[in-house]
């Protein structure tokens, strides 16, 4: 695969991604979507939990080389890349990169301006730093998981969006770009320690403020934004689908009641003693029609009501379709790059990078000829 023309505000920025799973690849995809030249260093045999590489959207807009870090010259090849990079991202447990010979000290000896981004769940230090984990465990200890779901049911699992991607990958991207700004101003690189427990906790800043002020109860389903409020939540429709309601402000609440046909509850907005009655009335009304019928009722209003769509339905929503929020690349429907830029537009330039397919091109473009030399895989425990 030939190198693609620069496209996006990060055109000219070089990124090395040491292959992993979860938030690291997603963070590197975001940088690639924004125009960075991201070279993913895949290991022989691939990574755990990997899907078919043809469909791994988190590897789009990247290029891939294979380096066996357990071979005698493996670390040197990564250091050659680091010497020419602006950013390096790794997601190993603390100390692993150092043992492999590609830790921050070794990389900064070759490139003092390098931004070295480290993505973990627990962080680089602390009692649990050496322990394994996944999104659900990281968000559990932050109090975030315990906020989500019905009060009479176990906490609801929000896929891996809150921890891996919101609290992890997005904070890593903010961190490495901030550090890159500093490096370009001073010539000094640094290490960015992005921990999912830190980022996920940070996401709840507003709620901690509300908790301290007495405006948030420390339990599920009892608050304005967690389903406790009858005009901020989801309701089943006649066809077993759902509508989402977010009619918080008085004017939106009044319009919601009018279109739903329950105007008698105008005074119940702040009357907690009537919230149970209001919830029952709203639920009964929504059950009287299908999701699509209710969608038609609310579509031209400011009642802040929307249908709950499935993943396959979402790209066909009229608003998302009009904006091109999703795109078809190579026959795979996928989210388009975000956010949008007026002067440096972004795009899905290439499909998922295939392991090792770009070695020759990267060796030429980054001027690392030794990268193209054949390396024998070295088998052993990860």
Overall description:
By secondary structure, the protein is an alpha/beta fold. It contains 13 helices and eleven strands. The chain has a six-stranded parallel beta sheet with strand order 3-2-1-4-5-6, with helices on both faces. The chain has a three-stranded antiparallel beta sheet with strand order 7-8-9, covered by helices on one side. Strand 10 (326-329) and strand 11 (332-335) form a beta hairpin. The longest helix has 26 residues, at 161-186. The protein is elongated. It starts with 13 loop residues before the first strand and ends in a 17-residue tail after the last helix. The model is unreliable at 1-5 and 375-382 (pLDDT under 50).
């Amino acid at each position: 695969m030939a190198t693609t023309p620069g496209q996006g505000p990060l055109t000219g920025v070089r990124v090395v991604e040491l292959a992993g799973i979860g938030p690291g690849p997603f963070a590197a995809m975001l940088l690639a979507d924004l125009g960075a030249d991201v070279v993913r260093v895949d290991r022989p045999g691939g990574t755990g939990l990997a899907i078919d590489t043809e469909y791994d959207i988190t590897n789009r807009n990247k290029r891939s080389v294979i380096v066996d870090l357990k071979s005698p010259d493996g670390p040197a090849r990564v250091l050659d890349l680091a010497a020419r990079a602006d950013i390096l991202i790794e997601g190993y447990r603390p100390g692993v990169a150092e043992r492999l010979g590609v830790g921050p000290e070794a990389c900064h000896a070759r490139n003092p301006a390098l931004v070295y981004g480290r993505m973990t769940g627990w962080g680089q230090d602390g009692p649990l730093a050496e322990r394994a984990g996944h999104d659900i465990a990281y968000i559990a200890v932050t109090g975030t998981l315990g906020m989500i779901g019905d009060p009479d049911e176990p906490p609801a699992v929000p896929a891996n969006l809150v921890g891996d991607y919101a609290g992890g990958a997005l904070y890593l991207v903010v961190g490495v770009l901030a550090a890159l700004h500093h490096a370009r101003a001073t010539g000094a690189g640094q290490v960015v320690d992005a921990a999912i427990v830190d980022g996920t906790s940070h996401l709840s800043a507003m709620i901690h403020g509300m908790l301290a002020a007495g405006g948030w109860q420390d339990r599920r389903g009892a608050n304005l934004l967690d389903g406790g409020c009858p005009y901020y939540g989801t309701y089943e429709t006649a066809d077993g689908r759902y509508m989402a309601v977010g009619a918080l402000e008085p004017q939106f609440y009044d319009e919601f009641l009018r279109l739903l046909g329950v105007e008698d509850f105008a005074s119940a907005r702040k009357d907690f003693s009537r919230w149970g009655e209001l919830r029952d009335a709203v639920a009964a009304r929504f059950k009287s029609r299908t999701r699509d019928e209710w969608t038609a009722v609310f579509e031209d209003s400011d009642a802040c009501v929307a249908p709950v769509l499935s993943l396959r339905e979402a790209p066909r929503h009229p608003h998302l379709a009009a904006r091109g929020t999703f795109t078809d690349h190579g026959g795979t429907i996928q989210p388009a790059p975000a956010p949008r830029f007026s002067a440096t537009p972004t795009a899905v330039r290439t499909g998922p990078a295939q392991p090792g397919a770009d070695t020759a091109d990267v060796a030429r473009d980054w001027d690392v000829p030794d990268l193209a030399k054949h390396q024998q895989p070295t088998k052993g425990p990860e």
